[in-house]
Design a protein that fits this description.
With 57 residues, the protein is mainly β. It has a single domain, classed as Single Sheet (Rubrerythrin, domain 2), CATH 2.20.28.160. It is 0% helix and 42% strand.
């Protein structure tokens, strides 16, 4: 299992072997969410876009 470091708190975030580009992973320490970015055989992370609910207002 690969690991990436959280950009907020520097904790290790496990990346399952069957992960795919664009999946969301969450830091087990601070709870921040990140999107997986694959380059070659390795993953990096970028901040996940948070989409709020549109209640039609």
């Amino acid at each position: 299992m690969a690991k990436v470091n959280c950009k907020e708190c520097d904790a290790e975030i496990p990346v399952p072997d069957d992960s795919m580009q664009g999946e969301i992973v969450t830091c087990p320490d601070c709870g921040e969410s990140f999107e997986l970015v694959k380059s070659g055989n390795e993953f990096s992370i970028k901040p996940a876009q948070v989409v709020g609910e549109d209640w039609g207002q």
